Amino acid sequence: MKLDLATYNNDWYKPGSVIKRFLWHYINLFFFRSGLFPFYAIKTFLLKLFGATVGSNVLIKPHVSIKYPWLLQIGNNVWIGEEVWIDNLAQVTIGNNVCISQGALLLCGNHDYTKTTFDLIVKPIVIEEGVWLCAKSVVCCGVVCAQHSILSTSSTLSSSTLPFGIYQGTPAKMIKTRTIS
């Protein structure tokens, strides 16, 4: 058997109306992905307008990309750094006091490479309270980042973490326990 992308079909995936996705594409491009609007209040207002749940004191830096805000929940006191990409084909839940550093990538989608049709797979991501996703880290679909865990710089997480665990590498492995004093 061989991969045959001509047979790929994701008609079952309905992330929102065409008009809603069209409007969001340009708002995301103009207000989030560009560096023209560094104003946090405007960004949180727009996310809420498009169906996101957003807590207080949320800081979203320039050059951030969010796929579908209606599949996004953000808690209080959250920092989202420059060039973060939230590719939320499924629900992404971000808890309170979370730091997502520059260039981090949250991927809710993947493909079934064992099928000739390369079927789309979508699963949610949960980032619990106190988590730090360091710069250039990658969180894959279906992962739960347990409370106060850390994913080190340039590491890739494809399975869920333990609370207070510090994870490093590709694939990320727990290297020690986080202590907060």
Give the full name of the CATH homologous superfamily.
Hexapeptide repeat proteins
SSE pattern, N- to C-terminal: HHEEEEEEEEEEEEEEEEEEE
Based on DSSP secondary structure assignment, what is the total number of beta strands? 19
Please give the largest β-sheet: 7 strands, mixed
Shape: globular
Provide the CATH topology: UDP N-Acetylglucosamine Acyltransferase, domain 1
Task: Describe, in plain words, how this protein is organized in 3D.
There is one protein chain. This protein is 14% helix and 29% strand. The chain is built from two helices and 19 strands. The chain has helices at residues 18-32, 40-49; strands spanning 53-54, 59-60, 65-66, 72-74, 79-80, 85-87, 92-94, 99-100, 105-107, 109-111, 120-122, 125-127, 132-133, 138-139, 144-145, 150-151, 156-157, 165-169, 172-177.
Short description:
This protein has 181 residues and is an alpha/beta fold.
